[in-house]
Structure formats: structure tokens, C-alpha cells
Protein: Oligopeptide/dipeptide ABC transporter, ATPase subunit
Amino acid sequence: MLEVRDLTTKYVTRYKEDVYAVDRVSLKIEEGKTLGIAGESGCGKSTLALSLMGYYFPPLHYISGEIIIDGQNITGMKPDEVRKSILGKEIAYIPQAAMNALNPTRKVIDFIGDVIRAHEPSWTRQMILDHARALFERLGLPPEVLYKYPVELSGGMKQRTVIAVAVILTPKVLIADEPSSALDVTSQKMVIKMLRDMMESGFIKAMIFITHELPLLYNVADDIMVMYAGQIVEKGTAKQTVFDPLHPYSKGLMGSILVPESGLRSAKLTAIPGAPPNLKNPPPGCRFADRCKYVKPECRVMSVPLYEVSQGRAYRCILSEEELRRAYNHGEQGKSVFER
Structure:
């Protein structure tokens, strides 16, 4: 459905400095699957989401790699061609600040009309209206929302409306960047249910779900990739990545989650010291070396590839799987907070 091979993109700042926010990222997502992407702020998750669409505009620039959607390689395509034939139809994007993505002075039906006419200029207003009503009913949204302004909608309804506008042309792949952020628990549940229903009904074929909320990601995604400083440091199934992380950063990330359950008040959380490297001048070796308690001298000079442990499971570290497990067992007691 979607395959990415060694994708590298960078930002060029006003001072002509290169910031490599996505560095040789490869991924593959099959039909009917949801891929989760986790990592701290600034690690490149949102830049990766933008890069996957193959539509680049300054300051973001394509450097190398391939993006293949349903057998079609879209790298090297002209921006106008990508916008007309790929965006919205093959791959759609829900931006991180989705609730602020709509012009407050226009009605929802006007946004839908703009999207459809960009790809189907022959459609009449009545055809657009009929299509929008049918879609909203299918997604469990009241049809009267079509005639409202964004400022008349609640946060949860506005978020669900943005999702509906994004999928109006039934794309094959949907990229959701923090779709449940800034929402209360009830609204989050409605948004997640809407996304899952679209997947289960085949309305969208595959989804990439980006979020900071790891417990949520575990319940939504089939597979999870962990990003750090522009690189993928671990990937595997949701169960593997959450319950049995291999990379030291993934291990620290999973151990930093606070679970408000009875009997966990005395549980000690893991803190990751230090700060990520400056991507204007990333270190030559492992990018996590300065924050890793298992670091060795060679970690700071050796380029660390992504080692495949088994089919679909991989991590980026010079230590073997056996060495990592031995280090974790020696230094930590108890189970993951997900299991306690």
C-alpha cells in the first residue's frame, strides 16, 4: 500500500543552514494496517508526515529516497502533479493543529467544495452537496454541520469535521498527526472511534497515526516505529515495542509513562537525562549516545545501522539483543507499567 525507502529530507533555514529532520527513513504499511509513530517533540514525526506526501515547499526540501503508493513511485513528480493526482486521492493528511486549520469565516461545505473541485472540476454544487451529506451520515456526523461555520462547532466536532474534509475523496492512506491532542477524554474517544470505524469499513485502506500518548498508540496501532533525532531507532509490532522494547531510548520512553492505577503510587518512573542533539550538526555516531547509560566509546564514532532482529522487528544500536536484555535485567526490576 505504502512503501518508503531511505527517505531523507531537510529544512534550509534563513541562514542557509541545513537541518536534517528526516534521515534515511524506511517503512512499509500494508492494506488494513495502522502504523504508529512515537517520539518526543522535535524528533521529526511531523516532518516525516509531510515528507511522505511527496509535496515539498520551502523551507522543506527533498534530498533522496523513494515513496511508493500502491505501486506508484511519486518521488520526482512535479508539485502540481502531486497536488492534483496524489494529495487527497491517494494519500490524505490531518495536520497537527487541525482545530485551527479551518477559516472561521467560511462554512464547512465551502471547504469540501474547494477540495472536490481541485480534483473534480466538473462536479456541480448539488453533486458536491449530495456527496458531502452521504459522507457525513456514513461517518456519524450531523448533516447540518455542513452549513455551519467552524466557530460554531465544539473542539471535538471541529476535529471530526477536519477528518471528514481530509477523507472526502476516500484516500487509500490517511496520515493523522496528533489527531486527539487538545481534546477532552470524551472527544478523544469519539475521534479515535471515527478513525477506527473508517479503517474497519474499508473507507480508508491504511493509516499512519502519530501521537505522544503511548497507551493510546498501543490500542490503535498494529505496528509502532520510534523516532529519535530524525532517525528510526526501533520498529516492531505494538506489543513488541511497548512490552519488550530493545533500543535504550524506547526502553526509557516506555518507562516514563504514568499510569493512574491502584497500587502504582510507589512505582518509580524512568527519566531520560539530557537533550536531543542539534540536527544542524548531528553527531557522527549514535545520536542517543550522550543520553544513554549503556554508551560505549565506539558509540560516539560508529555509524549505527538499523539491525533487523526478525521479520518486521529492528533496532538501531551497536549492542546485540542479548547484551541489551542482560543490561536491562541487571539494572531494572519489575514489569512495564502497562503490565503492572
